[in-house]
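[PROTEIN RECORD]
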Amino acid sequence: MEETKCCVVSCEKPLDQQYWDEQYKAKSTGWDLGEVSPPIKSYIDTLENKNSSILIPGCGNTYEAEYLLQKGFTNITVIDISPTLVENIKQKFAKKSNIRVVLGDFFAHQGKYDLIIEQTFFCALPPTMRQKYVWKMHQLLADDGKLAGLLFNRNFEVSPPFGGNKEEYTLLFKEAFNSIKMAICQNSIAPRANSELSIEFQKNAGSIVNLYQFEGITCSGCSETITKKITEIDGILNVSISSDYLEILIVSKKEIELEELQKVISYDKKYTIKKISHLC
């Protein structure tokens, strides 16, 4: 996505279905490599179970799915929010029975998958949605399922893509996933050399991962205090608050009652917390 120009910075246009559909209609797809990314191709080559259920969210022109089909995989689902794109790839795979093409919002998607492939989806989402991303990935994966692919290890002056770094990702995915691999790619394409992290995370099925709406936080200091207080609750493994302070991801050993969470934050009457059960 290096050459992509987006007006999020200049005119605050939302990254919604209309935005992404306009990019595909205008063929303004600077992130599109025209082929499967070399690190992901190498990873696919290591996979042995051709019947694994595989999901590719924010699939784009989905060269990854094309390669999976070439390798004999039989249970592939791709999803994207752009109607223009989805119609094109439906036609592309019209004669292929081993792939399901879905038009829709990833965060409303339902299913269970052995593997989810990450390729320029995370970086296309506003950073405020990163806690929601972890929550949804944990929901969609089977108990021993994996999230694998690429994350950017750099920041960008114009976004999307939205960057990040290894330290940030380690804290974000902590306890919800076990990190098998997170390292600088050795076979990235030249424009992305030394700026991509190859990841392989396995779902921590023993953890309970919940997402909550939060109201009342107005600054980073408040966020840090709330994080500390909730982390001190018995059974809490990780707490992560979104950059706009509106959502909080809580990973725990056991289900934490909402009343207990509300009690902990009740030192300030303006703080309220509400569990998000699903998105539709």
Remarks:
- Residues 1-11 have pLDDT under 50 and may be disordered.
